[in-house]
Records
---
Amino acid sequence: MKKVMCLIGGIMVFVFFFAPLQASAVTQGDYAVALAEELGLGKGLTAEGAVEILTKVGIVPSEGWQIAKEVTCELVAEIQDLVIEAAQRGLIRYEPEEVPDLMASLSERLGCCTPPSVIVYPRVPITPPMIAVEMEEKGESVASPWR
């Protein structure tokens, strides 16, 4: 009886703690389609079409999109970083600080790994040194790393 209880306990520990770390049943192609649509880059896309559009805005994993391969937690984290970069460059309609919530919502809807929590600070305009000196002389506020 004790052996059966230990076995059941071991299975429960595995299911609750280790199973979520495994790859999801969502393919990278499905993820690319959902991501492209969520970013407002197209509707009714095929996996190939979604990959093409995401590539144009720089959202390409280090190993490339492998349409038939399952999505992993590592891929979701990498894609989140790439989407933040695309937002910082103004290539998508979202602000960088909006991306973590968008990615978490997308992952939850698809039933795959939630990306890690990150803090994205809004862009702060930086004033070049010569202009900063002129602004300070006029008593204006200056955001400059050189002062």
Note: The CA atoms of residues 104 and 114 lie 5 Å apart.
---
Amino acid sequence: MIVDSHHHVWRVRDNLWLQGPMVPRIFGPYEAIRRDYLADEFIADATGAGVERSVYVQTNWPLERSLDEVRWVQQVHEESGWPHAIVGAADLFREDAPALFEAQAAASPLMRGIRQQLHWHPNEQYRFASAPDLMGDPVLRRNVARLAEYGWVFELQVFSNQMADAARGEGGTGQHARGDEEERTVERPARGAVFVQRAQGRHAPVVGDVAERVHA
């Protein structure tokens, strides 16, 4: 079985970053996606490539609407049968984030995890996080640990030169890394990846694990 373990569907009206003037972004020009991309189109694209199951990953709705996003994707699933799992969003720097986890779990049995984007770069065009030293934040680490109570994954997006800090849960720009990594900080950075966050003796599994649990 082929599972698309990270895909998006969206309505422009829910994603402010798709509205307004074009601005430089790490993924380059994005004129082509400044339109609705809904389930019927995705399903045609996916099934045409042999995909049988899929995992929706959050698309940067405003964080205060993270629960609305899960409710909408659950409705999409009820109408179309797709996706088969959801990785949602949450502000993991809020002490009350676990209350949102509860609400998301109640809103959809498809919930499988939370994504956090903390990529930071000296060039503002490539920056998403507000500061380079957020990965050691104790509130973030406590909230990531709480994901294990739900059996959820934690998906972290960082640049490659942040990954060592991410694995330790530390801050910094990653400039301690090898010379080729350090040099990359002044050029366009490579995309990041996922790590296993451990805290208080518990851990949330890496996001790849979600593909094995789309039926759970």
Note: The longest strand covers residues 111-117.
---
Amino acid sequence: MATGDAALTGIAVAGECGMYNSSDEIYVADKVNDDICWTHYSPGLSGILNSYTGSGNIPWTKRAKTEDYTIALIGPAFEHYKLRADAEHADLYEKYLFQVILNRAKIYARMSPDHKSMLVESL
């Protein structure tokens, strides 16, 4: 789901639509200044479990083969990962990471029209 709404609104709507399990933990990526900040929410958004800052600090990678989590990206974070994957000097990890994010993310929030076009072209 791609929306211009705030991340928590998008997550709530996606939950009501059954886009993820209510028992899923949720990882939300936002871009703060020039860095990515991941916030880890408990099931049902009942609380923040942890926050991680840094482009290379991807908290959900240890769980990549499980199905009990959901990823949400805020527009500027999506753009950050997309541009890194598309850069001429991008390494295989950056390209792979972007593909994993595309495959796992179910909620894209605060997406501008340009971000939505980039998402459609990426899919």
Note: The mean pLDDT is 83.
